[in-house]
Design goal:
The protein is an alpha+beta fold and 223 residues long. The chain has helices at residues 12-16, 29-38, 46-49, 121-128, and strands at 42-45, 52-55, 61-63, 78-82, 86-87, 94-95, 101-102, 108-110, 116-118, 132-135, 178-182, 187-190. The chain has one domain. The chain has 4 helices and 12 strands, in the order H-H-E-H-E-E-E-E-E-E-E-E-H-E-E-E. The strands form 4 sheets. Strands 7-1-4-11-12 form a 5-stranded mixed sheet. It has a 3-stranded antiparallel sheet with strand order 3-2-10, with helices on one face. Strand 2 and strand 3 (61-63) form a beta hairpin.
């Protein structure tokens, strides 16, 4: 479990109990470790790499991970990003440590013939095959092609969604930088704007991917 040294709330007591969640300090070590793991400052690019799906027949949740072979460009595929757990809706200050998952800024791409292609390829396969009835997207959890997951809320990040301005990612460092780890293992600082390269970032994945080869979040397996 990673704690960003620039996150002032990533402390034992801060991770033990988040006041915004109405938590009380844990009485069991297993609960403490679970909370600490959830609030790691390493947010996983789960939508592309291992989306959380609901099994159609049982209603049970499961992960559908990407194989290493499916990731075409390891050096330009986001693995982890600095993250936050919560932001006060009024002060907009981050609270309670990091978050184990983050969401991407874009979803759909238009191909040469004008067709709309879903870059959430594992989500699409699980839904279209009938294996899954829903997936966890911090919004309606819909398998529908036109659904609008939370993604980056940007200027619509208010109320409960205040923390999702950048999809749960957060620039803890100087000059609005966040550390980004890629699948091949290299790490580089990015601003929020730099993390949207190749895509027209709009609230809830409302903009299109403009250049799949420049877009950093996907598996590059749809074009």
């Amino acid at each position: 479990m990673f704690r960003c040294p620039s996150d002032p709330h990533a402390t034992d007591s801060g991770l033990d109990a988040c006041a915004a969640d109405g938590e009380t300090p844990p009485t069991q070590q297993c609960i403490r470790e679970y909370r600490w793991a959830l609030k790691t400052d390493l947010g996983y690019n789960y939508v592309y790499l291992s989306p959380i799906m609901e099994q159609a027949n049982t209603g049970r949740w499961y992960n559908a991970p990407a194989t290493d072979a499916r990731i075409r460009n390891h050096a330009s595929t986001v693995l982890f990003v600095d993250s936050l757990w919560w932001r006060d809706p009024v002060s907009r200050q981050p609270l309670c440590g990091g978050n184990w998952i983050v969401m991407p800024p874009c979803r759909y791409w238009r191909n040469a013939s004008g067709g709309v292609v879903d870059s959430f390829t594992i989500v699409r396969q699980q839904c279209d095959s009938g294996a899954a009835s829903r997936w966890y997207d911090y919004a309606a959890n819909s398998c529908g092609m036109g659904a609008r997951p939370a993604c980056w809320r940007l200027q619509t990040a208010t109320g409960w969604y205040t923390w999702m301005e950048f999809g749960g990612a957060w620039p803890w460092h100087r000059r609005e930088r966040m550390m980004v780890a890629f699948v091949d293992g290299h790490v580089k600082p990015y601003t929020p704007a730099q993390l949207t390269q190749g895509c027209d970032a709009r609230p809830q994945c409302g903009g299109f991917i403009l250049d799949p080869q420049q877009y950093l979040w996907d598996l590059d397996d749809y074009y």
